[in-house]
Amino acid sequence: MISTKLKIAVLYDVWGDDPSAAEVPAEQTRKRKxxxxxxxxxxxxxxxxEALQKLDHEPFYHVIDGNSQxxxxxxxxxxxxxxxxxxxxxxxxxxxxxxxxxxxxxxxRYTGAGPHALFLAxxxxxxxKMFAFHGIQTPYFATAYRGRIExxxxxxxxxxxxxxxxxxxIGIDADAVVNGVKELMERVEYIQDTFDSEAIIEEYIEGxxxxxxxxxxxxxxxxxPLVELDLSRLPKGTxxxxxxxxxxxxxxxxxxxxxxxxxxxxxxETVAKLQETALAAYRALKLRDYGxxxxxxxPKGEVYVIEANPNPWLASTQEFAMAAKASGRSYTQLIAExxxxxMARYFxxxxxxxxxxxx
Length: 359
Prior knowledge:
By secondary structure, this protein is an alpha+beta fold.
């Protein structure tokens, strides 16, 4: 663990109806306001800030608010490291990679995925093609936009239809799973009209929803204990999917009937298979420092990678922190390890050891 005291900027974005945000054009936030209203009771940035203080670092907040001045101010922020928690720019999730690219242009050190990895993971079709190239099983899929088919496997019903480049279960509800052509066409139209986005249409995989948290660099990444989102109590006829209601709407019945927990009732061979698949996906998309791989385990024991999440939610009550705790790490130790991984990437282990010995 680094013993050198660092000045660390906890970087996050605000937009739209956030009172601390700059004025943002309505068309840039309209489609996301309704989807992202359900948020944490305590922001993960606050918990990270507190953990950094416990580690004897000097954290401070820096807000990206959709105004270019907040970007320009990064040049003079004086941080030894940026703890990058941004998810969008001015409410546009597709610009998440641009912020990482901007940090690279400024020569600033930061945690988590670089712009290349953020692009590969966000475009679900590109990510799936990468998985296929590396021999990682993922559901067959097609992409469609305004009557144009960009890519198509020979897919069969049931299907799940999602926005191509959104995250956080945006655009996923009970109607996302379709069983016929009419439903499919209606859902594709809904995705296009609501999000002005290509729709990704993939085969729905019945099975267990498994999340694998991964920590580390490409060469020495570690898959932590698996976490499962238990969907078994959802009412009969309700698709067993991680919808917006399940994940964020605390007033919804689906939210109350589901929970995540560390996997316990699984044989070692299957656990190893899931963890190995997660590591392969993490490396295929060039993730770094930390990431979460979402998978489905079919009743036949087949593992399908659904998607990869760079820089996943780090709140202490969420899946990544659950996995870290199950591996024997406290929340503060988890944050320390992410800082260490980022700093080692920029300075190398030998230099970091020398820096630590000076304190």
